[in-house]
Design brief:
about 375 residues, alpha/beta, 10 helices, about 25% helix, globular
């Protein structure tokens, strides 16, 4: 048994101003108010700091010098251990539009990984089934048209662990794929030139998410609301957003959150290998990326993912929207768990769930991360 005592705990239904969490092995045994008075000798004093559920990043390519597309166990270990330092305890390893043989190698490596640090709970395939007219930082040479057979082939390479797939609904074959496979994979609409009506049609067919809102999609216009308008108004589409102040203006984040509401908005990092690294040259999807001045861009100036950390994203989100932590913690944890159908095990602090926790100070600096009961001290 382990105890985290003297912490302010954010749960699904209430905030416990001073309480403790009892951990039995990998899972939470109890969440109680007051000070722990039992006979467990492994007691950590939380110092009156804040205890949140571990963060869940459903769209992240890499960080700390490595990338999912490296398809390498040591690289994945570097990434998973690095993510704990920002409070992320679970994530979807995200692939890029690349040669299919390389994508399959990455799927195989990520799905087979069982190492320390944050847990790979599935895979997000971002491309190659996107529009060549909205590739963003992806390589247009490898854009493909989707078929059921090809998606099933990728899923076999991933041992059935593809959870989310970004797709442009207007490209040939996309709507057929969405209709046939949406019960097996969450289709996220992005890298698209689809109209407002086309996105709503895709949602009716079974698409359920929007990939990095405001980036690589048709903008809002008053006579053609575009992808952004559909994302705002369609309650069937949960929306992910890179909250770094670079990919989207703070006011745009506030608008999206106000329209989507507390339960349909999810913060992501979309981070690449330059996160946590010094300024310099890096790589994303076979293309050169330059990290300088707090952002990462291709040589053309196109944004190339982010270098955002999840605790910074939560801090930004609260500053941009004015939301309090009472609700804000959900956009980095609970909403993602619900979207993935994993809320019975992760996403909130509750007896019976995995002990995936993050202890932060009142400025949201990460002090300690806990993954299935394993504690890692981040900052003294």
């Amino acid at each position: 048994m382990q105890v985290i005592n003297n912490v302010k705990i954010y749960t699904e239904h209430a905030v416990i101003e001073r309480g403790y969490v009892l951990i039995d092995g990998e899972r939470i045994a109890a969440v109680e108010p007051g000070d722990y008075a039992g006979d467990c000798t492994d007691v950590m004093d939380g110092g009156g700091h804040i205890l949140l559920p571990g963060f869940i990043d459903i769209h992240i390519h890499g960080g700390y010098g490595v990338d999912t597309m490296d398809a390498d166990k040591d690289a994945l270990t570097t990434l998973t251990e690095g993510l704990l330092s920002e409070g992320t305890t679970s994530f979807l390893a995200t692939t890029m539009t690349e040669d299919l043989s390389r994508v399959k190698r990455a799927l195989d490596a990520a799905s087979a990984y069982d190492g320390p640090g944050a847990e790979i709970i599935g895979i997000h395939v971002e491309g190659p089934f996107i529009s060549e007219h909205k590739v963003g930082a992806q390589n247009p040479d490898y854009v493909r048209r989707p078929t059921v057979e090809l998606i099933e082939e990728l899923q076999r390479s991933a041992r059935g662990k593809i959870k989310i797939m970004t797709i442009a609904p207007e490209v040939e074959g996309a709507m057929d794929v969405i209709r046939e496979k949406h019960e097996d994979i969450i289709f996220s609409l992005g890298h698209t030139v689809a109209t407002f009506d086309e996105l709503n049609e895709a949602a009716a067919a079974g698409a359920a998410h929007i990939t990095h809102l405001y980036n690589a999609a048709t903008p809002f216009e008053h006579r053609e609301p575009g992808a952004f308008g559909a994302a705002w108004l369609n309650d069937g589409l949960k929306t992910e957003c890179i909250v770094d102040g670079i990919h989207s203006h703070p006011a745009a984040v506030k608008i999206a959150y106000r329209l989507k509401g507390r339960d349909r908005f999810m913060v992501i990092t979309d981070a690449m290998r330059a996160k946590g690294m010094p300024d310099g040259d890096y790589e994303l999807g076979g293309q050169r990326v330059i990290k300088k001045g707090g952002k990462a861009v291709l040589a053309s100036g196109t944004l190339a993912g982010s270098i955002l950390k999840m605790n910074d994203a939560l801090r930004n989100f609260m500053a941009y929207t004015g939301e309090t932590l009472d609700n804000a913690w959900r956009v980095v944890s609970y909403n993602q768990a619900v979207a993935l159908g994993m809320q019975q095990d992760i996403g909130s602090i509750k007896a019976g769930k995995y002990a995936d926790l993050v202890l932060v100070d009142h400025e949201l600096n990460v002090l300690t991360a806990v993954k299935k009961g394993y504690m890692k001290l981040i900052k003294n």
